[in-house]
Amino acid sequence: MEGFRRLLAGLDTVQACYYLRPTIGQAFSFEALTVLKERARASKIRDGVPVEIGGWSFQLRPSGSGSGYPLILEHPNYTLECGEFNNPSFFVTFRSRALWQHGAAALHETFLTWATSVGLTVIRTESLSRVDFTFDYQIENPDFTIDSVVSLSAKDDQRREDRRVQTIMFGKGDVVLRIYDKIAEIEQSSEKVWFYELWGVREKVWRIEWQVRKDVLRRFGIKSFQDLFEGQGDVLRYLVNDHDTLRIPTEDTNRSRWPLHPLWVDLAQQIAEFCGQGVYRALTRRQRSMPSCSASPSASMATRSASRPS
User: Fold this and answer.
1) Which of 88, 181, 182, 240 meets the CB 3.0–4.6 Å disulfide criterion with 207?
2) Which among 84, 38, 29 is positioned nearest to 62, based on CA atoms?
């Protein structure tokens, strides 16, 4: 591999449970929304109906979610799954573009402010369900395959196109690692062309992404957004050093002794800058001291970096 360059790091998906109780007679009414949903379903309106609540415009879907929430409200920045008798009452997915534009901290605070304005009372601190940590690099000549990865995950998958590696994936469930050609993904499925402006380039971009669910987040004491902002470095250091590593294959039969790939060395250095509490693994109740937090990897986790040749 001739070289690589850091482009962007950030949160691409966040899902959180909110424990909110409605106040009678306020702007948010589960009953009124349920009536609108049933009318839309009876009229076979597949795309749902527009509704405005507290100055926010939503699209109310004519059906509930597969996870048991009767109401789904689509907003440009959020997807709200909610139900009066569900616990938690709201399951919120923060949209990718909104996270890159505004950051998780601002979106969280904005949602809580809106909820309060429409008569929803917080009865318990929010609980994170899923966080996707992503690191984008421009890579001149990718020289790795699925066999270059040493992982604690048992399941793996590799997808190719025109005999070239396009996606490497490890894990299923609590931790999923994906290393993939982000340009191909945009062109073939997501159409998130707005990334081109964020990156400043339009070719040879690869993404390293960990999808982490609540059981692993809890091991590092991450439950709320505040926990995430203060301790994301702890879980990331575990992921990049212990859970998954990208290596250069040699003849050594012990794959864990293969040398780290220069890209992974750079990634670990980047992650070392993120804030943490020094928790090694809450599972073992052990702690170790970590470098002090850098000011640049903020609550939004979005950062740009200069060239790092291998």
Assistant:
1) 182
2) 38
CB 165, CB 158: distance < 8 Å: yes
- Beta bridge partners, 212, equal 131, 175
Report the distance separating Cα 105 and Cα 94, nearest Å: 11
Residue 223's alpha-carbon distances to 70, 121, 217, 218, 254, in angstroms, are: 25, 20, 7, 6, 36
Taking only the tens place, the pLDDT of each residue in 83-129 is 999 999 999 999 999 999 999 999 999 999 999 999 999 999 999 99
Residues with Cβ < 8 Å from 265, sequence gap 6 or more? none
The answer to whether 188 and 161 have CB atoms below 8 angstroms apart is no
Report the distance separating Cα 49 and Cα 38, nearest Å. 11
Residues listed for the chain? 310
Q: Alpha helices of 12-144 — where are they, by DSSP H?
A: 30-42, 96-102, 104-117
Distance CA 155, CA 263 (A): 23
**In which residue are the tokens 């998780």 written?**
104
Bridge partner residues of 176 (DSSP): 211
pTM for this structure? Answer: 0.88
Q: What are the CA-CA distances from residue 5 to residues 101, 124, 143, 268 (Å)?
A: 22, 42, 15, 14
d(CA 125, CA 303): 28
Q: How far apart are CA 119 and CA 28, in angstroms?
A: 6
Cα of first residue to Cα of last residue in the chain, in angstroms, is: 8
Measured CA to CA, the distance from residue 143 to residue 163 in angstroms comes to 13
Q: What pLDDT, on a 0 to 100 scale, did the predictor assign at position 280? A: 52
